[in-house]
Recover the amino acids of this structure.
């Protein structure tokens, strides 16, 4: 909560990013056919080398304090210097929350690296979100990766031991809702609900321009039903709520954002302003900077701007792209990107009455 107060100026002035999504690597040991990053014609592999630790250090210097740092990929734990990268951002940018999504395929490595990060980054909330899209072989089939479910549950069991040792550590699951698992999502929610009650569970809509857009044929009613079950479990305290200070506020924002996403899915006009490119930025493993994960136009590459990410955002090319972000932009009009909803709700005073209402219901 104190970290949110520290960024209160951004409620009025959307001048610097408070939320950075950093795609650390394209390497992955799973084969998910619905991955918007690795299975999208909008994001082809350029062959450019990954940013080195020295390059990342220079980039971090151009950023101020961050509220939220979300690593992504690829599988983030396949980045061999993940611990060093995390420490670097922690020392320089002091993110309140550091998010590590994972397919859970490397139990020992994930446990050991997470423990090192949680121990060092003691003033940040270190969140590991394990991907879980089905129970048992349903998960393996959907992700086209044999043995994934068992490995993920092994990783979950190993990481549970860190909850007692590190108060700043949070463990949960995230489910990507697709056409293929929408009829079994309630079964999956029940499965997660039967685990340790400290375990959080979030829901993401499949997104992006995929090689097979059939995965996106989700019935909005299935999304609404799953979102309502998750909200009711939060209200009844029968499932995990975020453990950090201000967790109740974040949970209220989760409930509210899922309501907005459902409205988008049923075709209602989107009215919520988006702060992509202002409060949110996306950095790829090769140094490209995007306003968000959905818009396909790069603002520029940090390697061409002396590793100054703010210099990238101030270029004429970037300004033109940022001006195009509006409810009339076809990419924006159908956007269900959860990460952007964090800032779009928390930094928009017009949302505060609805946010307070949900907060009081939890």
């Amino acid at each position: 909560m104190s970290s949110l107060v520290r960024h209160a100026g951004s409620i009025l002035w959307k001048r610097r990013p408070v939320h950075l999504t950093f795609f650390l690597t394209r390497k992955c040991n799973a084969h998910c056919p619905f991955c918007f990053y690795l299975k999208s014609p909008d994001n082809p592999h350029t062959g450019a080398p990954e940013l080195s630790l020295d390059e990342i250090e220079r980039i971090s210097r151009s950023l101020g304090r961050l509220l939220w740092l979300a690593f992504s990929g690829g599988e983030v734990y396949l980045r061999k210097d993940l611990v060093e990268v995390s420490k670097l951002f922690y020392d320089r940018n002091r993110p309140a929350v550091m998010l590590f999504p994972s397919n859970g395929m490397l139990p020992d490595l994930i446990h050991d690296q997470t423990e090192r990060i949680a121990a060092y980054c003691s003033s940040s909330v270190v969140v590991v979100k394990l991907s879980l899209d089905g129970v048992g072989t349903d998960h393996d089939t959907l992700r086209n990766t044999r043995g994934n479910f068992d490995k993920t549950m092994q990783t979950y069991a190993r990481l549970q031991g860190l909850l007692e040792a590190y108060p700043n550590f949070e463990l949960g699951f995230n489910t990507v809702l697709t056409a293929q698992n929408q009829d079994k999502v309630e079964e999956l929610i029940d499965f997660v609900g039967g685990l340790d009650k400290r375990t959080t569970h979030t829901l993401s809509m499949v997104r992006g321009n995929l090689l097979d857009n059939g995965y996106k044929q989700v019935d909005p009613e299935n999304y609404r039903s799953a979102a309502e079950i998750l909200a009711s479990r939060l209200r009844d305290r029968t499932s995990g709520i975020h453990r950090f200070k201000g967790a109740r506020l974040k949970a209220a924002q989760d409930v509210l954002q899922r309501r907005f996403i459902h409205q988008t899915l049923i075709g209602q006009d989107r009215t919520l302003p988006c702060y992509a490119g202002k409060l949110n930025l996306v950095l790829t493993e090769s140094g490209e900077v995007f306003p968000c994960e959905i818009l396909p136009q790069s603002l520029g590459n940090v390697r061409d701007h002396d590793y100054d990410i703010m210099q990238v955002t101030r270029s004429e090319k970037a300004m033109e792209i940022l001006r195009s972000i509006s409810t009339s932009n076809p990419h924006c009009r159908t956007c269900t990107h959860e990460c952007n909803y964090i800032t779009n709700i928390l930094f928009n005073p017009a949302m505060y009455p609805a946010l307070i209402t949900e907060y009081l219901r939890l």
